[in-house]
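REQUEST ID: PR-0412
SUBMITTED BY: lab tech R.K.
PRIORITY: routine
TASK: structure prediction, single protein chain
INPUT:
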Amino acid sequence: MLSKAWIKVLLGFFALSLAAGLIFYPLPVLQVKDTNDQALLIPLLRGKSFSLEYVHSVQKSPVRENFAAVAGNQIQLTSTTFQTLGVGLPFLSTEGQLVNNQGTFELTGQNRVFREIRLAVMPVSYQGLVYNNHQYLLSNYFLPGSLVEISIQSYSPGYLIWHRIAVIFKGGLLWINQSLHQEMK
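STATUS: complete
OUTPUT:
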C-alpha cells in the first residue's frame, strides 16, 4: 500500500502533467498577419465557423463570406450573402445554389478550400472578421493599405497568453491602434 506522501507526489505529478498538457495542447487559431508580422490571433474555441464582411467596391453593398476551418488548417468557403447582383458577385449555377431571401441573395454549396486568404486592408470597405458574434474590424488592427494574410494556425494556450502579454508590453497591435488614431486627428 502506498504511503500518504507517495499519493501526494503522484497527485502532484498528475496535476502538473495535466496543467502542462493544457498549456501546450495546440488549438485552432484564426490568424490575421501583416507583412510586418503584426498579428491578430482569434482562438476558435466556440466553433470553427467565421465570416469575412466588407462593402463591395463596385456594388457598394454589404457582402458576407462564410468560412469554416477544416482539416489540415485549411479554410473552406461555405456560402456568400449579398444584397445586389452585378459585376464581381457570384451568380452562375456552377458556383453553387443561389437563393433570393426577400432581397438578400445567398449562394450556398461553394465548398472552395484555401490555405490562406490575402487582402489589402481598405478602411472604406469596412472589412471585418466575425467570430462568435464579435466583429474584428481590420482597420482597427492594421494600417490602411497593409497586406494581410488570413489563415488557420495551431497555437498552444501558453503561446496565446505569451502573445497577449507581448502585445501589451511591446506595443504590438495597440501601438498600431494608437498611431492610427493619432494620424486621423
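NOTES: Confidence is low (pLDDT under 50) at residues 173-185.
REVIEWED BY: pending
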